[in-house]
Amino acid sequence: MVNIQNLSFGYSKKKTLFNQLDLELQPGNIYGLLGKNGAGKTTLLKVMTGLVFPDQGYCQINGHLSKDRVPEYLEDICFIPEEYHLPSVRIDRYVTLNASFYKRFDHDKLSWLLKEFQLEPHYKLHQLSFGQKKKFLLAFGLATSARLLLMDEPTNGLDIPSKSQFRRVIAASVNEDQCVVISTHQVRDLENLIDPIIIIDEGMIIFQQDIASITSALLFDTALELKENMQPIYHEEGIGGYAVIAPNPGNKESRMDVELLFNGVIANSKSINKEFK
After folding, report:
1. What are the residue ranges of helices labelled H in 35-103?
2. Potential cystine with 80: which of 35, 123, 141, 143 (Cβ 3.0-4.6 Å)?
């Protein structure tokens, strides 16, 4: 589906953002692309969509180089950016003008999603609130049924009930032929949805594992105090004790804490990645 090899890119010659980055993504997954602000998440999505071109290496989507932006490639990819502008037209007019660009567009799915998000076809886009505009873009993006669906900070602007609703409709409307990449730094919003997890830092992929592998290799636990026999790889002090990531040689069951994992990988990626070798 997505094959990125030896990718190098920088917005200027003085500063390189990516240096020989490799990444492969397969259909049937909802990837979580996690990273701090400025880590390169949005730029990586733009490389996949062909909005920026590699300085070296290549990005290939379904056999097409993203930089070529051929119609066969564009009709099967949808990018929902964090920052956007919507025209002053009704929802149904927007759909009429844009749906035909996507060969898999599902009007029945769109009708269902609009109802889920409490949006009517006659609503004027420029009169919607920020959260309503985001819901419409999400509904339209999911209705494209594009084989590669890219979302940049999709939960920004959504209230707590809407975030729960977003997770539900994503899980219900994505099929095994699709590859979904959700870029975010708000990891708790999506921890029950994303799998596998990719963490990017300073323009490099520093972690990529699926949930089953993570919970098999790592033990997520809490403790009132740290003891030597715990051998924690990473810990955080909180109210009433510590949150701990430790090796899991006995393959004990534990519930993965995505935020703790993210902080642990950012702080000590070598030690955490060592548990998967």
Report:
1. 41-49, 71-74, 91-98
2. 141
